[in-house]
Amino acid sequence: MAEKYRRYDHYQPPTSPFHQKMHTFIADYGPTPPPHDQVAKMARYIVHNADWGAISTHSSSPAIRGFPFANIVSISDGTSTNSSGVPYMYITPLELSTRDLEIDPRCSLALSLAETDYCKQQNIDPEDPRCARVILTGKVKRVKTHTSEIDYAENALFSRHPAMRSWPRSHGFYFAKLKIEQILVLDYYGGPKIVPKPEYFNPGDVRFRI
């Protein structure tokens, strides 16, 4: 069991400028996910192919305060041919999950190949481990304005969610990202695996898009 839940406790985030530290990759369009034993590549593949995910927060609503609260959020880690591995979001303080995050930024984000046609085409149920999923845990942070990162986030999200461009400014939407603390992958029988962050952000060549 210990081997399945590997830890990497001494990771230090990169200190180089944003455009150097993002570890973006040019996507090589591929029809199938990576082999299940290449878990870092699988994690990046799922994150890049997912346009949305289930985000779980600690509820701040009085009736269910402190309970887990799951919701859907649109995400993007890059344009269709670029992948950073960082899920970006365009969220409003009017939304329940955002209210939770502004009080307690800790959350988990679940993404699955069931969001694509892959599992259905392979006749694999979404709950089957072979219908690979990744659960990212960390803290949601607002992306700083007037930076190259906010330009990246805007391009990443608006290129894959064009309707966002017309969302009302009066709702106070802003760009945010998940600062990842743990990457857990379940893509085959035998239990989940934890991917060290350095491996996740430097997975080598990955055929990203289904």
From TrEMBL:
<dbReference type="InterPro" id="IPR012349">
    <property type="entry name" value="Split_barrel_FMN-bd"/>
</dbReference>
<dbReference type="InterPro" id="IPR014631">
    <property type="entry name" value="CREG"/>
</dbReference>
<dbReference type="InterPro" id="IPR055343">
    <property type="entry name" value="CREG_beta-barrel"/>
</dbReference>
<comment type="similarity">
    <text>Belongs to the CREG family.</text>
</comment>
<dbReference type="GO" id="GO:0012505">
    <property type="term" value="C:endomembrane system"/>
</dbReference>
<dbReference type="GO" id="GO:0005615">
    <property type="term" value="C:extracellular space"/>
</dbReference>
<feature type="domain" description="CREG-like beta-barrel">
    <location>
        <begin position="34"/>
        <end position="202"/>
    </location>
</feature>
<keyword id="KW-0732">Signal</keyword>
<keyword id="KW-0964">Secreted</keyword>
<dbReference type="Pfam" id="PF13883">
    <property type="entry name" value="CREG_beta-barrel"/>
</dbReference>
<protein>
    <recommendedName>
        <fullName>CREG-like beta-barrel domain-containing protein</fullName>
    </recommendedName>
</protein>
<dbReference type="GO" id="GO:0005737">
    <property type="term" value="C:cytoplasm"/>
</dbReference>
<keyword id="KW-0325">Glycoprotein</keyword>
